[in-house]
Amino acid sequence: MNIIVCLKQVPGTTEVKIDPTSNTLVRQGIKSVVNPLDSYALEEGVRLKEHYGGKVIAITMGPPQATEILRDAISTGADDTILLSDIAFAGSDTLATSTTLAKAIEKINKYDLVICGRQTLDGDTGQVGPELAEMLGLPFIAYVSKIETIADGKIKVQRMVEDGYETIEAALPAVITVVKEINVPRLPSLRGLTRAKSAQIPTWTAQEIGTEKGTVGQAGSATWVVKVFYPQRVQTAEMLKGDPEAQVETLIEKLKEAKII
Amino acid sequence: MEYFLTEQQKTLKSLARRIAEEKILPVRADLDEKEEFPWETIKNLAESDLFRIFIPEQYDGMGTSSLDLCLVVEELSRVCSGVAVSYAATALGAYAILLYGSEEQKQKYLPAIAAGKRLAAFGLTEPTAGSDVSNIKTTAEKTPEGYVLNGTKQFITNGGEAEIYTIIALTDKSKGARGASAFIVEKDTPGFTFGKKEKKMGIRTSSTRELVFRNCVIPAENLLSKEGIGFIMAMRVLDHSRPGISAQALGIAQGALEAAVDYARQREQFGQPLISLPVVQYKLAEMATQVEAARALVYSVARTIDSGVKNFTEESAMAKVFASDVAMRVTTDAVQVCGGAGYMRDYPLEKMMRDAKITQIYEGSNEVLHTAIAMELRKRKGRRE
Amino acid sequence: MGISVDKEKCTGCGNCVSTCLFGLIDIVDEKARIKEAGCTLCGACRDACAFEAIRIEKEIAEVLVGDEHRGVWVFTEQRNGEIKNVSYELLSKGRELADTLKTELCAVCLGYNIKDIGQLTAYGADKIYLVDDPSFANQSEDPYVTELVRLIKQHKPEIVLAGATPFGRSFFPRVAAILKTGLTADCTGLDIDTEKRLLRQTRPTFGGNVMATIICPAKRPQMSTVRPRVFKKNQPDPARKSQLIKVDFNKESISSKTRLLNFVADLTEKVKLEDADIIVAGGRGLGKPENFQLIRDLASALGAAVGSSRPPVDEGWIPYSHQVGQTGKTVCPKLYIAVGISGAVQHLAGMQTADCIIAINDDPNAPIFQVANYGIVGDLFKVVPLLTEKLKTV
Description:
The complex is a heterotrimer of chains A (about 260), B (about 375) and C (about 400).
Chain A: E1 2-7, E2 9-11, E3 17-19, E4 24-26, E5 32-34, H1 36-52, E6 55-61, H2 67-75, E7 80-84, H3 94-108, E8 113-117, H4 128-136, E9 140-151, E10 154-161, E11 164-171, E12 174-178, H5 190-198, E13 203-204, H6 206-209, E14 224-229, E15 238-239, H7 244-257
Parallel strand pairs in A: 1-6, 1-8, 6-7, 7-13, 8-12, 9-12
Antiparallel strand pairs in A: 2-5, 3-4, 9-10, 10-11
Helix pairs in contact in A: 2-5, 3-4
Chain B: H1 7-24, H2 28-34, H3 39-47, H4 66-79, H5 81-100, H6 103-114, E1 120-123, E2 139-143, E3 146-157, E4 164-170, E5 180-186, E6 192-197, E7 208-218, E8 223-224, H7 230-266, E9 268-269, E10 272-273, H8 278-306, H9 313-343, H10 349-359, H11 366-380
Parallel strand pairs in B: 1-4
Antiparallel strand pairs in B: 2-3, 3-7, 4-5, 5-8, 6-7, 9-10
Helix pairs in contact in B: 1-4, 4-5, 4-7, 5-6, 5-7, 7-8, 7-9, 7-10, 8-9, 9-10, 9-11
Chain C: E1 2-5, E2 25-28, E3 31-34, H1 44-48, E4 54-57, E5 72-76, E6 78-79, E7 82-83, H2 85-101, E8 105-111, H3 117-122, E9 127-132, H4 141-155, E10 159-163, H5 166-179, E11 183-187, E12 189-193, E13 198-205, E14 210-215, E15 222-226, E16 243-246, E17 258-265, E18 278-282, H6 292-302, E19 305-308, H7 310-314, E20 335-339, H8 345-351, E21 356-361, E22 374-377, H9 380-393
Parallel strand pairs in C: 5-8, 5-10, 8-9, 9-16, 10-15, 11-15, 18-19, 18-20, 20-21, 21-22
Antiparallel strand pairs in C: 1-4, 2-3, 6-7, 12-13, 13-14
C-alpha cells in the first residue's frame, strides 16, 4: 500500500510572543517545525505501512529550507520524500496550494491513501485536505480518530463529529484528515536519522508537475491578504484591592450590580 | 567543553536527550511515586533504536561502542536514572551473551534484544553473596535432561520484567568460585519464579527482584562458554558494564547541577537571586567542576575500552568510584542550594539524591572497587607508561 | 510579481524585520534584504516601512466589475432537523452585508424534517432555498457538496457564508474547490468595501497572534466560514416575510463516495460549553488535576459549565471537550471566570467576547487582565474557595 502524507513547515508558534511595547511579533528563537498535526498524519501513515506493507511518501510545498521537515519525516519512518518548490508557488492560498499538491499527487500516480493533518498551526484553515480531495476527485473523510481496517480496496475509519463518533467506509484511494487523538507520534530512530542525513530529496518544480499558468502561487490564489495587523490590547480590568476576603466581597457586589447573580 | 564526539555520537546524544525530555520528564515523578516499571518509555527507546547500540551489526545492532552506551545512559539519567538503569541492565545481561555466547546463542537472543522486544538481566548477587561474590550458593547440576538450577538470586535489576537472564551458578560446589558457570535462562521456564519485589530508596521505577530457581531444568545448550569460568566471566562482564553505571552517576549529577543552577537564578533572597551570593556561587562552581572531571574520566575510560585493550578492570573501577561519589556529593549540595524546596517531592532534587546513592553501591561497591584498584596498583607498582 | 526593496529609500532601520511572520527579512550592509522564497507577499513589511522602500508587485487581478453574481447566501446548518444557532448568527450578519450591498439575503437549507424554518425569516432571510429530503438525513457530506454547488451555479450569489463548525469546515472547502473560488476560514470580522463591492474578511492567524484581512477579488462567490458565537444574533422579527423556494431536487444527481456505518453519541459531556450562560475555566495555575475540583465546586455554586485553557487538556487533567480557545471552543457566555489562566492569545481568541470576564491569577502582568472586566491578583487556592463559600450564601 502506498501512502502519501502531506506536510507543512510552520513556525513553532508556541513560542510566538507579541512585544508589548512595539506590538509586533517577537521572532527570536522561533524555529521552523513540521506542523504538529501533520506529525500525527505521518505517524498514522508509518503505522499503516508497518501493518499492511508498502511505503510512505511525504510531500511538502515550500521554500528549499522545507527539506528539513522532509528529513525529519525520513527519521520517523517516511520512505520517500518530495519537495515542491518553485518561485511560482510563492503566495499560494489554500486553493492554489491544493491545486499544486493535487498535481504532484497525480504525478506520483500510484497511491492508495492520502493523509493530511486536520489543520495547520499558522494558517489554521483546515481547508487544504478537503480541497485536495475534491481536486483529485476522491472520497474524503475529515477528523479521523481511528483507522479500523483497510481491506478489499476499502478503508473503514472512526471519525469525530461534534456530538460523537461516526464509523465511515470509503473506497480507496481516498483522502483523510486526522486528529491528534489518533496516535502518539514516535520520536526519530537512530537508523532513520542516519538515513535522513544522506537522503537525496527530489525537488519538483511547477514545470515538472505540469501546473497550468495562473493556477498556482499568488496568480492562482483566489484570496488575497490585503492587510496584516496585530490585535490591540490594553489592560482594561478593574483590579479588586484588599485581602482575599475583601476582593471576594467586592466581586460579589459587582456581580450583583451587573445583575449576573 | 569540547568532548570530541563524532557526528554520529552527537546525533545519538541529542536523540537520547529528546526522548528523555519529551517522553520521560513528563512521567518521571509519577514513575517514582508509583514504583511502576517504565514499559512505555522502554518502547520509546526501542522505537528509536537505542537497544541496538550495544549489539553488533550482524545481530541487527548498530555497533558496540562503550562510549555510545555511556552517552545514552548519561542523557537518560540526567532526567531519570530509574529508567536509565532499566535500560542499562539489559546491556549488562546482553554483554554476557555478546562476550561469551556461541554463534547460535547470539543469533537466538541478540536480535530480539537489539529490537527492544525482549529485555535482559544479569543474575549474580545472592543473599549470602554481595561484595563477597565467590560465596554464591545457587547450583546447576548436570543431568541427561540438561542443567537443573536450584537457589535464589537477590536484588536483580529488571527481575520479573526481563525475558532473558544470564545466571551464575555452581556446577561444581567443591571448587568454590572456580566451580561457577554461566547460563542463559528464559522467563517462563518451569521452576523459575520471581520472589519479593524490593521497595527501594531510589531508582524506584526500575524493578529489583528475587529470582527463585526450584528444580528449574534448562537445556544443556544454554551453558555460556564452558563450565568453571562463570566467575571470571562475571568479572569481565561487570568490567564492561561498569562505565554504564559511571555514566548513570554522571547523568544524575548533571541533572542535579542544572536544577540547582536554575533554581539559584530564579530564587530571590536578601533582595537578589541566590546565584549572586558568594556562598552559593562557590558551591555551584565546585559542583560544576566535579561534574566535568567525572565526565572527562568516564568518557576517556569508555574510549579506552573502545580502543580494544584487553584489561581495563582498574580504569572501569576508577570511573565508577569517582563518578558515583561525585553524584552523591553534587546531588546533596544541590538539595542544599535549593533549601526547603530541594527537600520537597515537588522538585526533582530529592529524587536525584536518593537515586545517586545506589551508584556507590551496586555493580561493585565503591569499597570493593577501591580494593580492586589497589591490587592493580600493586601489580604495576603505581607506574604509568 | 515579486517583492523588492528600494535601496535608495531604505535606511536599514530594521522596522520591517520584526513584522515578517516568516522571518525572511534581515539587514545586510544597512539595507533590508528579503528572501523571496517563502514570501507570501502579505504586505506586513511594506505597511511597517516609514520610507515606502518596500514594493510589492502582484499581478493585479481585475476586480470583477459589472459581474452578474448578486445576493448574500447563508448555508443553514442543521443536525437532526434542528437548525444551529450559528445559522441565525450568520443570518444576522448577512442581513447587514446584504443591506450594505442593497441585495437580497438567502438562506440555503438542506436537510430532512427540518424544524422552525420560519425562524430563518425572523432572523433576516428574504428568500429560503429548501431541500427537505431523506438523502440529507445524516450528515454524509457528499450530497450537501453536490447540491450546494448546483444551487450556487444556478443562482450565482456573490457571497456564501457557512458556520466554521466541524461539518462546515469539512464540506465547505470542497464546495469552494469545485467552484475554484476563494474561501476564508474562521472569520471574526466581515464587512463590505462598497466601492469595489468586495467582502473584506478578517481572521486571526498564527494562533490568534496576528489578524489578517483577506479579499477575493476575481472569483465568485466570495466564501467564508465563521465560528459559532463570533457574531451576535439579532432580535428575531416574527413579522418579517420571505419567499420559500422548495428546490426541485433531483435524487439521481446525488451519490455518496462514503458510507456511514454507525454513529455513537458521546455522552460524556453533559453541559454544552457553547450554550452555557456562565463558565468557570481553569488553567495551568491549578498545578494538578485534583485541583480542578475547586473549579467544579465554584461552577456548581454558580450553576456554571466547566471550561479549561489548553495546558490542562494537554496534560490530560480534563477532556478536550472542555477546552476553550483557538483550538478548542469559542464561547460567549454572560460571565466567564478564568482561574489560573495566564491568557495566551489562543485562549483569549475563544472567550474574549464574553459579556463579563473575571480573572483570578497571581501574576499581575498576566495578559488575561487585558480582556477581563474585573481582576483579582492573588492566590487562587485562597480566593476560589472563599468565593465558592460566599456564593453559596448569596
